[in-house]
Amino acid sequence: MQPRCSLVPKEEGNNPMKALVNHGARQWRVQEWAEPTLRPGDVLVEVAACGICGTDLHAYKGLDVGWPLPGIPGHEIAGRVLAWGSEVRGFSAGDRVAVQPLLYCGLCEDCRAGRVNLCSHLEFVGGSLAGGYAERTAVPARGLFKLPDSLDLSQAAMAETLSTPVHAFNQNVSGLLRSVAVMGAGTQGLLSLQLALLAGARAVAITDVVPRRLAVAEELGATLVINAREQDPIESILAMTDGRGVDLAIEAAGKAISRQQALHVLRPGGMAIFIALGTEPTPIDFMSLVPRELQIRGTQCYNDDDFALAIELLASHAVHVEPLLTRLPLADGREAFEMLVTDPGQAIKVVLEP
């Protein structure tokens, strides 16, 4: 499949820009690179902010995610419109936009069934296509969402991240919740905490091993924060619910132990939604799961409606992301990734700003 836009090194093109380029495991560096070539359906975006995702971190550490090398990652993007191709309508210079980076084909069986997040031929801005760790990026126009002037662009870069737990709630939750447990107080966990409160939960417990994350969780309204190094999460959550268990558990840590804990803290008939990726094998006690009619759900990314709702939640401040953000210049991009590898507890969500 021919790429929608191309990026070439400085010596092969004109008008160079700064970009954080992936040359392989822990071989990422900021360098000059030619800006993208606009195709007829593309919009050229001046990047204002691009968040670091766990998938980006996996790629930095050398996990094979199938991205071309060298390449420019970064898919949590917000910025301003600079120019557009001949087939594009509806945009003006200076429009503030967020990028929905999943470009689905619209023709495969899953797309036709409305499951565009499961598209068989998915392209990915910041993966198979050049992304936002650069001063400028070219994005197919259908992947852009306009932003209200009131929304800070670094906060708007969180729309992509927020869309995943929004999708999890939209797909699986109906009616008000009484109680929720969130396993892991990283970015996805802290966003899920806030969505649980919006869904009416009167009691929300959250676990982690990093004190700063737990402090932010308490600031954001958690009923119970549990340091899993000091307290037993299962005992603590069951005590919060007088022994019955929670309606919903969100697993946002990607660890075998937290997956098992998510199932153990459910009430009969309760649901566990698994958001986080992780390679650890996880034994499941079916003698506990089957008689209690527990529900286990995976969730994969989001659709356009989830993305639009995420922007609304950010713009209305129904979901707060500022306490999660650490803003760093793009020039320090490699150092930011090294920090997240060697000392991840120091930052919850790093956003690179060109």
Task: Give your account of this protein's structure.
The chain has 354 residues and is α/β, with parallel strands linked by helices. The strands form 4 sheets. Strands 3, 4, 5, 8, 9, 16 and 17 form a 7-stranded mixed sheet that branches. It folds into 2 domains: 182 residues, Medium-chain alcohol dehydrogenases, catalytic domain (Quinone Oxidoreductase, Chain A, domain 1, Alpha-Beta Complex), CATH 3.90.180; 137 residues, Rossmann fold (3-Layer(aba) Sandwich). It is built from 11 helices and 17 strands.
Short description:
The chain is α/β, with parallel strands linked by helices and 354 residues long. Helix content is 27%, strand content 26%. The strands form four sheets. Strands 3, 4, 5, 8, 9, 16 and 17 form a seven-stranded mixed β-sheet that branches. It has a six-stranded parallel β-sheet with strand order 12-11-10-13-14-15, sandwiched between helices. Strands 1-2 form a two-stranded antiparallel ribbon.
Instruction: Describe the largest sheet.
Output: 7 strands, mixed
Helix content: 25-40%
**Tertiary shape:** globular
Structural class: alpha/beta
DSSP strand count: 17
Count the DSSP helices.
11
Supply the CATH class of the largest domain: Alpha Beta
Number of domains: 2
**Could you give me the name of the CATH homologous superfamily of the largest domain?**
Medium-chain alcohol dehydrogenases, catalytic domain
Give start-end ranges of low-pLDDT stretches: 1-13
CATH topology type of the largest domain? Quinone Oxidoreductase, Chain A, domain 1
